[in-house]
Amino acid sequence: MTLAETSRRGHATRLAQSAARDGYDIVAVLGGDGTLNEAANGLAGTDTALAPLPGGSTNVFARILGLPDDSVEATSTILDAIDRGAIKRIGLGAVEGRYFLFHCGIGFDAAVVEQVEKRGPWKRWAGHPLFIYAAVDTWLRRVDRKNPPIKVIDAQGNRIASGFFTVVMNANPYTFLGNRPFDLVKGTSLDQPLAVVTLESLSLSALVPVAVAALTGRDVEKRRKINVRTGVRSLVIEADPPIQYQVDGDHLGSSRRLRFAWTADHMSLVMP
Q: pTM of the full predicted structure?
């Protein structure tokens, strides 16, 4: 067994790549969603399995898998899964070559993530209240709510949606609010192609019903001003002006054009 500690952005990717080259069977990662994402990018396409352990400020992916929030309890659960040989190949989404475990957000939510990251020292301690504050502040002051910048284009080159905010999902739920899952597309799983959700309006009359449906387990796609596509293996998002985007809660900047792809059976994952 080898123990290593990350020291900078991108370090987890290089450590995971090294472990895979050296023939390790499993890389256990204690950290938040950003660290898990980096490790997944180092392990994608290899036979080395990722074993997630919640330990950072946000742990959406660990909760999607059903792991306890407590890292000691989660470790026990993961060790039991390893003993049972519960390791599965999963599909991964990718945007411009960067893999994501559960989602890529384009537009409004990426702008929210940027505001949260600017308050880095508060992220671990403030948690959900900080995200709620950032969402309200971003909605009020930092996004254009009149001119939809996003065009979603399918593999055949057809525009299938336009809007202000798109989430490309590799797994559901999108996130958690407290203990409640925020279900955007129920049934989205790690062994199926992507789901794509586009909000066509940022008005409160459109946002509130979607949020209520997502938090109460109702079908989001039946709400107004929302476009939902499932079974998507590739797509392109174009934006004018350039649009912000994030993967698994890690803000990556802005772009005018983002290419997405889904690859089946692309990484091994220890399944609790």
A: 0.94
Decide which of 42, 57, 92 is a domain's last residue: 92
**Domain boundaries, position 155:** 98-263
The helix, strand and coil proportions of the chain, stated in percent and rounded to the nearest 5, come to 30, 35, 30
Please answer whether residues 262 and 232 qualify as being in contact, where contact means their C-beta atoms are separated by less than 8 angstroms. yes
Torsion of Cα atoms, 92 then 98 then 103 then 106, to 10°: -150
**Could you report the per-residue pLDDT of 81-126, keeping only the tens digit for each?**
999 999 999 999 999 999 999 999 999 999 999 998 877 655 555 5
- Torsions phi, psi of 188, nearest 5? -70, 125
pLDDT along the chain (272 residues), means of 10: 89 97 97 95 98 88 95 96 97 98 96 84 62 87 91 97 97 92 95 97 94 94 94 97 96 97 98 94
Provide the 3-class DSSP secondary structure of residue 226: strand
As a whole number of angstroms, the distance between CA 165 and CA 150 comes to 7
CA atoms of 42 and 168, how far apart (whole Å): 21
CB distance 33 to 52 below 8 Å: no
- Residues whose CB is less than 8 angstroms from the CB of residue 136 and which lie 6 or more positions away in sequence, other chains included: none
CATH number for position 74 = 3.40.50.10330
| Torsion sign across C-alpha atoms 160, 165, 170, 172 | negative
Pairing of strands 49-54, 26-31: parallel
pLDDT of residue 125: 53
Compute φ and ψ for 180, nearest 5 degrees: -90, 130
